[in-house]
Amino acid sequence: GKNCFVYKNYLKVSYYNNLCKYNYVVYHVYPCSFSDCLVSIVTSSNSKFFIFGEIKIFKDSEKSDSSFFTKSILFSDKSFVKVIPKLEINANNIKCKHGVSLGGLNEDMLLYMFARGIDYCLAQRLFINGFCEVIIKKIKNNILFFYIKSFIKEF
Fold this sequence. Notes:
Elements: E1 5-14, E2 19-28, E3 34-43, E4 48-57, E5 65-74, E6 80-89, E7 95-103, H1 107-115, H2 120-136, H3 142-153
Parallel strand pairs: 1-3, 2-4, 3-5, 4-6, 5-7
């Protein structure tokens, strides 16, 4: 509806050989609506991810603001992430954006940590925790927050 807000945060941490599909579709039918989606993926082994994100701004939906971003870290050469963003804009005076980032552990960061006596496993955990923190810190339920934090530490 008019003046509505939708925030969607999705975090997937994959240890094993998973096949995951994630569809995000948002329609802005009324003016002055807002949507924001962040998909974060940490993957190892032979995991495969397919992410489809669609934003559609209908005619007469002026002053709508929408975004869809995907960030992925791959810890295996066999991991695979495919992101298919789609924007369909049929109105003027709107803000609409999308983006994808994909990578692995930064070698410069690892060298920095090694020089300070941090081994590879701990460096990897610190990197994953920092990456996931963007979404985890938004969780308001304390039980769920600490459960997810403990799960991430086991990666």
